Amino acid sequence: MGDHGATSTGDPQLDEAVRRWLSWDKNRWTRAQVESLVAAGRLNDLRTRLCSRMSFGTAGLRAPMGAGFNRINDLTVIQSTQGLHSYLCRCFADFSSRGVVVGFDTRGQEDSGCSSQRLAKLTAAVMLSRDVPVHLFSTFVPTPFVPYAVKKLGAAAGVMITASHNPKEDNGYKVYWCNGAQISSPHDQEILQSIEEQLEPWSASCWEEELVESCSLRTDPLTQINSCYMDELTSLCFHRDLNSSCPLKFVHSSFHGVGHVFVQQAFYAFGFAPPIPVPEQKDPDPNFSSVRCPNPEEGESVLNRKTLELSWRRIPTPTAWLSLRSLTGAVGRCSQVMSWLHCWVGGCSLTGRRLIRILQTPRRFTCWPPPCPPRSCRPSLASRGSTSRIHELSKMGNNVIFAFEESIGFLCGGLVPEKDGVSSAVVVAEMAAYLHNKNLSLNQQLLNIYQTYGHHVSQTSYVVCDDPPTIQTIFCRIRNFDCEASYPKTCGGVRIVHVRDVTTGYDSSRPDLRSVLPVTRSSHMITFTLQNGVVATLRTSGTEPKIKCYTEYCAAPGTRSAAVHRAPSTEYCWFQSTTLKYTCCFWSRGVVLVHLHRSSIYRYYRLYIYI
């Protein structure tokens, strides 16, 4: 190791990993991080960073920024792009003419000399060094712009540098296929294998950010894609006259993300006055200065009192405005927004064609009445499952008009086969304007929906576990609870009537005991149906070291909400974690507050509606 000025660790395998890193990495900040760890003798930290690699999770890579083969940095992004290039060359004979789309958000870490924009330029540089055309956005964009551009420009693939709702320390490398959908099996594992086959950077050109400014194969699609997106967005607008005269006021915060400019344009496209921005949260800020964590699963820590106060200051004193209710917890808001959008988009889009709604939650609206043409299907709880399913249904002649992911991601219409907070925000605004014209609030309409389809109650929670073997032990115990190949029989004193295990392909409710959902052996997901009607799902996150918990209860149509509130609760006693609680606050100043979380689909903006 003397060639690189470092001292031997005494571990030959670790020494080789350090040698490779210092030999390949040209980023002086991340090189210095490794050299500092070696000098300090922090061998465990070195092993963690250098002796394992990232694996593809939800549509790509996601990890903390910093030095190491299992982190997001210049070197691992270059390696990933080399592997992606090799795989695309095998899949597309015309790859050298179709090229790729590359976008980025505003994340960054000064200590690592790492930013989303720099990583995007390095991604482009690798492709350009092999004479592949690159459509690199010149500034930050919402994540849906990347898959939209992939389809619009006929590119072979797209890469978005973003980490969505992850902590500020993280970043990611999100990959889209030629159909605009997030990559899924077998592409993800094939790309990962291609990455591991050629880890050493091909040439010095891979490190040249400046290549994107000088190479004729690089184009900037920003103006064209933004214009086309906003034009096509109007296909979701059905009440422009009502929008232009709407007395409701909308307050928007991008939570330090990239949404402000694009949401303003979307409201203009629908004929609305621009939403009132929250200045303190309007501009991109990689430090998320006014929120502890940008993840909506954190509930009140995201939508905290400071956030509400910042929004509230933007509201002019009303004369006669609608009285609305505000939910400060993420769990209730998700199912409510889904309920509104599901019914609204379906009602506005009936054109005689076969319409499909993809619902990314176990039971939502399974009792949709027969007279209504649209039907619902349910692929899985994983977000990338919906985008692939959308493509499959479209090839069968179906028109997918709505899709929903549990983590508060919505797709309205066929604009882009991905969750899209920009379009969702303005669609909700039009829905609120229409209902206001009918003397209905969003809350009143929600109660009408519940009366027709049954009251839906849902809660989400999670536990953090940084140790993969512990996660394996937890799920192994669940699958061998009383004896081998035996699942729990009761939960919270209530009998479990059905078990579905997507990891193993088991479903006790089916005659052949085989799950109709695709088997996903790379992650864990088990769903329990209880005798009292509660459905509980445990699954591992594809992007964070978490075990996620979902519970929901669907009452029969016409059931009064008071009866629903008496439904038995579910405790996750299998690993000592209970579902999170959430609180309600009541406001009376009559505005609809539309919050978009910092990340769009990676950066998909998480949609928050205060009613």
Q: What would you note in describing this structure?
A:
It contains 20 helices and 25 strands. Strands 16, 17, 18, 19, 20, 21 and 22 form a 7-stranded antiparallel sheet that branches. The chain has a 6-stranded mixed sheet with strand order 1-7-6-2-5-8, with helices on both faces. Mean pLDDT is 78; it is low at 317-333, 349-384 and 561-611.
Output the keywords.
611 residues; alpha/beta; 7-stranded antiparallel beta sheet; 6-stranded mixed beta sheet; 20 helices; globular; disordered C terminus
In short:
By secondary structure, the protein is an alpha/beta fold.
Global morphology: globular
Cα(first) to Cα(last) distance is 62 Å
C-alpha-based Rg, rounded: 24 Å
Largest sheet: 7 strands, antiparallel
Helix content: 25-40%
Tell me the structural class: alpha/beta
What percent of residues are in strands?
15-25%
Q: On the 0-100 scale, what is the average pLDDT?
A: 78
- The number of E-state strands comes to 25
Which stretches are poorly predicted, pLDDT < 50 over at least 5 residues? 317-333, 349-384, 561-611
Number of helices: 20
